[in-house]
């Protein structure tokens, strides 16, 4: 639905602008933070309620759903991660569910939340956290910090020395250091930008569909919504799997409890 008097370019630009404070690199995107925290809180509350009402004899409803997801995640972790860890399983489950629900906000009508908040004087509101690179790169950076922590914890000084010795030997230490740093930095960049790119592209397609006459929107909108369900699920799964794989690589010489 076009804003009265707005051109298609102005409509799309308006919907892609974040509610923020500050400018430039200091800007804080309040909409991404608010929606992300709200969804995280919702997951915590739902998990707590389900945990308090567990039934081993007659599981039903949300308990069945969460148990199915938990078994799926546990299978993925066991098939990839060496040894045992008290962190990796819960982390993988949290990543999968949180990224999925943040992606799923993209399934809401593109004008709904901006229109509702516009009634209260909010000019811009971009409701999909994972369509914001600050969110996805923040998640990727957290994974990156964990990977570096466990690399040092598991491999010790040898891990740091590898930055100087590989791939060309200690005599080319400066070249080795530069190449290894590029390789390590590319991991969180690719992890975060892959998620952002796919969700942002999906949001942009919904905005383009919204520019069509109202009587025809349902046909391409419905088809894209069905396909996009697969996209948001797949991207959450990929983010979880890469998180497990990166942490498994950090633990590859570690076979005892973390």
TrEMBL record:
Keyword check for Transport: yes
Biological process according to GO: proton motive force-driven plasma membrane ATP synthesis
Domain of life per record: Bacteria
Gene3D superfamilies associated with the record: ATP synthase, F0 complex, subunit A (1.20.120.220)
Molecular function GO labels: proton-transporting ATP synthase activity, rotational mechanism
Compartment list: Cell membrane; Membrane
SUPFAM superfamilies hit by this protein: F1F0 ATP synthase subunit A
Keywords: ATP synthesis, Cell membrane, CF(0), Hydrogen ion transport, Ion transport, Membrane, Transmembrane, Transmembrane helix, Transport
UniProt GO cellular component terms: plasma membrane; proton-transporting ATP synthase complex
Major location category of this protein: membrane
Entries under CDD domains matching the protein: ATP-synt_Fo_a_6
Membrane topology: Multi-pass membrane protein
Transmembrane segments: 34-51, 87-105, 163-183, 195-216, 222-248
Similarity-based family: Belongs to the ATPase A chain family.
Purpose: Key component of the proton channel; it plays a direct role in the translocation of protons across the membrane.
Record-linked HAMAP family: ATP_synth_a_bact (MF_01393)
Protein name as it appears in the record: ATP synthase subunit a
UniProt organism field: Candidatus Muproteobacteria bacterium RBG_16_62_13
Gene behind this protein: atpB
């Amino acid at each position: 639905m076009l804003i009265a008097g707005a051109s298609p370019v102005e409509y799309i630009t308006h919907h892609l602008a974040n509610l923020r404070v500050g400018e430039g690199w200091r800007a804080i995107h309040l909409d991404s933070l608010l929606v992300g925290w709200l969804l995280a809180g919702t997951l915590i509350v739902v998990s707590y309620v389900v945990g308090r009402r567990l039934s081993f004899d007659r599981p039903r409803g949300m308990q069945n759903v969460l148990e199915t997801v938990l078994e799926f995640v546990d299978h993925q972790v066991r098939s990839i991660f060496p040894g045992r860890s008290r962190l990796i399983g819960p982390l993988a489950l949290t990543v999968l569910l949180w990224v999925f629900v943040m992606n799923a906000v993209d399934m809401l009508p593109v004008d709904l939340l901006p229109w509702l908040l516009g009634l209260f004087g909010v000019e811009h509101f971009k409701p999909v956290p994972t369509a914001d690179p600050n969110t996805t790169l923040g998640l990727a950076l957290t994974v990156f910090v964990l990977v570096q922590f466990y690399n040092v914890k598991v491999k010790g000084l040898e891990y740091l020395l590898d930055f100087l010795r590989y791939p060309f030997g200690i005599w080319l230490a400066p070249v080795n250091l530069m190449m290894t740093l590029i390789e390590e930095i590319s991991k969180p960049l690719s992890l975060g930008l892959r998620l952002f790119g796919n969700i942002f592209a999906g949001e942009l397609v919904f905005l383009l569909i919204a520019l069509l006459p109202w009587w025809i929107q349902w046909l391409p909108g419905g088809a894209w919504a069905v396909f996009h369900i697969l996209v948001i699920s797949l991207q959450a799964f990929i983010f979880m799997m890469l998180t497990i794989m990166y942490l498994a690589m950090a633990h590859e010489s570690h076979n005892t409890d973390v």
